[in-house]
Amino acid sequence: MKIYTKTGDKGDTGLIDGTRILKSDLRITAYGEVDEANSHIGLIISNIKGNSIFDDVGKILLDIQNDLFVLGAELANPQNTKNDKMQVKKEMITTMENCIDKLESELAPISYFILPGGTVESALFHICRTVVRRAERTAVALSKEQKISEEILMYLNRLSDLLFVLARVTNIRQNCNDIPWKLK
Q1: Apex CA 126: angle with CA 142 and CA 182, to 5°?
Q2: Which phi and psi (to 5°) does residue 28 adopt?
Q3: Could you give the CA distance from residue 57 to residue 38 in angstroms, rounded to a whole number?
Q4: Number of structural domains the chain divides into
């Protein structure tokens, strides 16, 4: 099977149910941004691989990558025509909330804004967080035009929270303080 089909050469693409829509449609943009976030997570995994202080983080991220494929498939299948297993479930969100709660126990509370950065790993988490926020904004816009599940919006919102916490955790685990924003 060849990687190219030539079916999208005129600017449209197929959804899972076979419907053809423009590649500029908000639905395509939304799952493209989810795919972009997933790619950034892959970069983070590659960066932390082999560092035992991040073994738990690597497992969390691999689970998230799998979840993001489910989320993208749900966006690509608006009628849910083939597989009801390809839907974001509330349990996926609860799992993230539990991870956030556990990881936050490593962190001191903050009452100020922090700048993205510190360690390379933390900076990568912040980049990924901003991509997820963009995907969330696009999904919200899509939800105003077309029906999508509320779990998609909840998942993306919670994922950006988790990525923020992971950015802080990776700094702390490497003895690097968060960088406070200072108004000049």
Answers
A1: 115
A2: -70, -40
A3: 15
A4: 1
User: Rounded distance, CA 29 to CA 122, Å?
Assistant: 26
Q: How far apart are CA 21 and CA 64, in angstroms?
A: 28
Q: Is residue 110 domain-resident?
A: no
Partnered with residue 20 across adjacent β-strands are 14
Give burial (CB, 10 Å; 0-12/13-18/19+) of 140.
Answer: middle
157: in domain: yes
User: Does 53 map to a domain?
Assistant: yes
What residue type is 100 in one-letter code?
I
| Average pLDDT per 10 consecutive residues for the chain, totaling 184 residues | 72 77 83 97 97 97 97 87 78 98 95 94 98 98 94 98 98 95 90
Q: What is the pTM of this model?
A: 0.92
Alpha helix ranges (H) inside 49-109: 55-75, 90-104
- Domain CATH for 170: 1.20.1200.10
